[in-house]
Amino acid sequence: MGRARRNSPKTTPVPTVVTKKHTPQTARPVIQQNYHQYYISQYYPVFPPGGSHWEDMDSGNAKLVVGESSPPVHHKQNKPVSLSFDFKFYGHFIRNISISTRGYLNTGQYPSYVTDTQYVAPLSDPRLDSSLDKYASVRYKDSGTSFTVEWNRLYLTNQTKLGPFVFQTTLMKDGRIVFAYKEAPARLIDDTVRDVKVGVSDAYVPSLVLDGGEPVIEYHRVELGLDKVHSNAVVILVPQQTCSELRECSSCIGPSIVDFQCGWCQKVNRCSDGNDWLTASWKDAGCDALAKFPPCLSIAKSEITTFYPRTSTSTSVSTLVPTSSSEHVVINSNESRPTTGNAATLSPHRVTPGPNLFSVSEHPRNNHRRQRTIGTNVIVGILVGVVILIAIVAWTVHVCSKMKADADVVVVQGSHIGHFHHHKP
């Protein structure tokens, strides 16, 4: 199995900065907010007052991934865990994740060699080592409405003098993701180091049959700067509504989502923009073409423009489980030919979504508007023609009436002149 790599323009952030300075009771904290299409990131340079978003792992039923008595091999393994609730990730609902001691969660439904394309990473760094400190640990806790993982006293290999890292990530039932950093060295990580990630990413396989040569499409990634990782900082990722969450044709092609070109496929009875976990079945059913002519296209305009509120109602989780492969093909956009490698040394690159189902001008809701515009133009044209015809008839009648009046005057004048000359001496 391979991974298709395509270059894309960097996400253009839309900053909204609150500049009020923090005071103990009344002022709001400084917030930097950026838009990433699937998520909005909110960065707090200091823990917000009234709630630090830091979970107390010493209370409750926290469980160990690795700890003081763990065998050395456990410090380099991922631990599979099942959530007690459905967690919305990129518009899909998941239950199964795996915890890495290297500072990230794998959210993928695919084999381990593509985990670098499906992740939640508060600080993913292959140099983080939980075996360098006697009191280091990786723990997790599930409250029923949130799931928290804590990486405690982890050091960077060969850079122990920098100090330990202590940080958490929390998955909220409503889909929010929290990165909280309690301790992080001031001189964090050189930006040139590869494989260091802070953010989230998702991918899909564009084929129902996995033969080891099919590319894996990493269709979106939220990349947060390493400057966000420092002591007492918090980052919150707020999920945005996606096409796959819309359950009706009218809401799918309507204006309720402006950031995606959604299309409705009656054959599979779902909404999509062509980039999600079910892309393979979507394409296999020929939905790229069917989505251009949805069955609800002829419904009333008032129904099309009805706003459907955003919901996070859970649906069944996809059970697609591809087979594994020992090797994969890496296609780098800057290289003329693919190279074969092992996933352990793979450094992911940013890629773009696949092609949209249709251009903006081809979108069903735009076609519907265009049809309404054509009909309106025809009616207006007919009315204008009728007005012109009436004007012509009125002008003709007016001219004829005037000509008749002029003729009568001539005859009268002629008779009068003749009679006058008849009596001349």
From TrEMBL:
Region of interest (Disordered), residue spans: 1-24, 328-348
Q: Which UniProt keywords apply?
A: Membrane, Signal, Transmembrane, Transmembrane helix
Compositionally biased spans, kind Polar residues:
331-345
Q: What is its main location?
A: membrane
Q: What is one term from the GO cellular component aspect held by the record?
A: membrane
What is the membrane topology noted in the UniProt record heading this document?
A: Single-pass type I membrane protein
Q: Where is the composition biased (Low complexity)?
A: 9-18
Give me the segments passing through the membrane.
Answer: 374-397
Where is the protein found, in the record's own terms? Membrane
Q: Which PANTHER family match?
A: LD40707P, TUMOR ENDOTHELIAL MARKER 7 RELATED
Kindly provide the name given to this protein in its UniProt entry. Answer: PLXDC1 protein
Q: What is the lineage of its organism?
A: Eukaryota, Metazoa, Chordata, Cephalochordata, Leptocardii
